Amino acid sequence: MRVDLHTHSTASDGTDTPAELVRNAAAAGLDVVALTDHDTVAGYAEAARALAGPGVRGSGLALVTGAELSCRIQGISMHMLAYLFDPAEPELHRERELVRDDRVPRARGMVAKLQELGVPVTWEQVARIAGVPAGPGGEPGAAAPGVSVGRPHVAAAMVEAGVVDSVSDAFTSEWLANDGRAYVAKHELDPFDAVRLVKAAGGVTVFAHPGAHKRGETVPDAVIAELAVAGLDGLEVDHTDHDEATRARLRALAADHGLLATGSSDYHGSRKPVRLGECTTDPEVYREIARRATGAQPISAV
Q1: pLDDT tens-digit map of 143-164
Q2: Considering only Cβ atoms within 10 Å of each terminal Cβ, which end of the chain, N or C, has fewer?
């Protein structure tokens, strides 16, 4: 069984539509794929419909619904993967909307900082890449439902401008990393609140890429221990941003605190050079995640 529990679609900052993502997961030989767009569930319905469509129907592929929640603690940005929660639960829904509403002003702020640094990118360029619709005057307006703007869209504009060679190269201290010169903060959840809200919505929480030092400062192990006590379910251990030493350390940390250890591709389509299923989760860990969830259950192709 091949299980990939961290992927993105065009509902946030991936390049595959939710339906394309599901079809590509089936073509890649996955048995389980989780759709975890940033702070949104906008891709759920399309992804679920694709399970009954060409290339997927009869494959047995299971879709895990989820989201990657934006969090911050001690001034450090972090991401929390939330699986199989009730998307209609009002308090968690309200927090996701607050984050989403802050994305366009944040992206505009990053563009302004880049321009001050002499980088020839524009908001119109970023909006086109992200699919933000034009307002009444023809200028890009606020994001419509189902459209999200994130740092990868700004990074893609930097690639177009020839400033960096790849989206990943933009996520450094020189540019868009959490401590970068052009970084702009947005509304983010306290991770303890995120754990509480997701659990109240019947979901399961996993700390995404906790050892990804290239993205900026990482959360101390002591905070992870406190999150475990507060109900955190797992750590994303096997991830392309983690070297072997980091994976070994995180696996030991997970064991010490009774946390599940997951693995995922963090697939973004053509935006990042990562393949679906490049890192995977042990089937028994996946089954435990599904067992713990009460807000939703995986949906299987028939």
Answers
A1: 455 567 889 999 999 999 999 9
A2: C
Q: CA 106 → CA 53, 184, 201, distances in Å? A: 37, 6, 28
Cα–Cα distance for residue pair 99/46, rounded to 1 Å: 22
Report the length, in residues, of the chain: 302
Burial class (CB in 10 A: 0-12, 13-18, 19+), 145: exposed
Instruction: Determine contact, residues 228/257, Cβ cutoff 8 Å.
Output: yes
Using alpha carbons, select from 180, 167, 245, 272 the residue that is nearest to residue 217: 180
| Torsion angle, alpha carbons of 242, 274, 214, 105, to 10 | -130
Neighbouring CB atoms inside 10 A of 90's CB total: 9
Torsion of CA 37, 169, 207, 293, to 10 degrees: 20
Is residue 262 within a helix (H) or strand (E), and if so which, with residue range?
strand 260-263
pLDDT digits (tens, 9 = 90+) for 279-298: 999 999 999 999 999 999 99
The residue type of 43 is G
Sequence-separated (6 or more) residues with CB below 8 Å from residue 65: 34, 35, 41, 44, 47, 83, 84, 87, 296, 299
Category of 131 on φ-ψ map: left (φ > 0), alpha (ψ -120 to 50) or beta: left
In single-letter form, the type of residue at position 177 comes to A
What is the Cα 226 distance to its own chain's centre? 23
